[in-house]
Specification:
321 residues; UDP-galactose 4-epimerase, domain 1; two-stranded parallel sheet; alpha/beta
């Protein structure tokens, strides 16, 4: 029974652990707190994954090593990501485990059309350049024959996301409770969102299929919808009235930057909400056989996670599907 080592127990790491354990695989989840799913087939380990020696020891014998970490808020990325990424590469090299990275779309920067995995990494902000650099380093080690690496890129998460740090869900949570949804970007441009279990399925497929190694893949996602449409769909499922969507004027958002560092970091990414932000994952479906979960299923699962569906109690959450 192959061993799979997952670094991180956020939405994706948790969903991946359930998926692999349900398939009969042996799963080891590493976090600083020792958290993760409490279930058969999953061993939870308290460890500092940025310590290469410690991570390597826990990854010995693993078929795959998954980077599902999210090291703190955006304001700490420049400090926390480089040592963690370096440790993951070292552990993958020393153990021979396939390194499968849960990535995002930040590395592309502003785009003018649908995003495909072969787009240049032309990020203009610090977070996007950091993610691009991490993948380039992993790819260089892969091409040198030192590791086997792949990256799976998703858009903003929907589904059971804890903590609820996905922008679409932050906007949608008030809507499903009948309150106005306050948004920072244009609510009427199409924007792809990605269902968390689909990220997990794509990661598992990419890690186990040698055709996936040495390149990036996009997670199959439902057809892009606007924030207004997404909020309306979730509110309808929750039995709430159609939501009122209120956009915060951009000058007002920028006025808060000097006193709100985290908002300033989010502000660097608002270009994603000013024009269509559409993910093309057709190649993933064709090669790896992964298809997006239908939108109506995504809506139902997301409302359950927000605790706002029929018979639900506000504030109640469920584990990732």
């Amino acid at each position: 029974m192959p061993l799979h080592v997952i670094v991180g127990a956020g939405p994706v790491g948790t969903a991946l652990a359930h998926l692999l354990a349900d398939s009969g695989e042996e799963v080891r989840v590493l976090t600083r707190s020792g958290g993760g799913p409490e279930r058969a087939g999953v061993t939870r380990v308290r460890a500092d994954a940025s310590d290469a020696a410690v991570l390597t020891e826990h990854a010995r014998g693993a078929a795959a090593l998954y980077n599902c970490a999210n090291p703190g808020p955006y304001t700490r990325w420049a400090r926390d990501w480089p040592p963690l990424a370096a440790a993951l590469l070292r552990a993958a090299e020393d153990t021979g485990a396939v390194l499968a990275v849960a990535g995002n779309l930040y590395g592309y920067g502003p785009v003018d059309g649908p995003m495909t995995p072969d787009l240049p990494l032309a990020a203009t902000d610090r977070k996007g350049r950091l993610r691009a650099r991490m993948w380039r380093e992993a790819l260089a080690r892969h091409e040198a024959g030192a590791v086997r690496a792949t990256e799976v890129r998703a858009s903003d998460y929907v589904g059971a996301v804890a903590p609820m740090n996905s922008l679409p869900l932050l906007f949608a949570a008030p809507a499903v409770r009948g309150r106005p949804a306050v948004v920072l970007g244009d609510p009427d441009v199409p924007h792809t969102v990605t269902y968390v279990p689909d990220v997990a399925r794509t990661l598992a497929a990419a890690a186990s299929d040698e055709r996936a190694w040495g390149r990036a893949w996009h997670v199959p996602s439902p057809p892009a919808r606007t924030l207004r449409q997404t909020a309306a769909d979730l509110a309808h499922e929750a039995g709430a009235r159609p939501p009122r969507v209120v956009r915060v004027p951009r000058p007002l958002v920028r006025l808060a930057f000097p006193v709100a560092p985290l908002l300033r970091e989010v502000g660097d990414l608002l270009y994603q909400w000013d024009r269509p932000y559409v993910l093309d994952a057709a190649e993933t479906t064709e090669v790896l056989g992964i298809e997006a979960t239908p939108w109506d299923e995504v809506v139902r699962a997301t409302v359950r996670a927000l605790g706002a569906g029929t018979g639900a109690t506000a504030g109640k959450t469920t584990r990732p599907a």
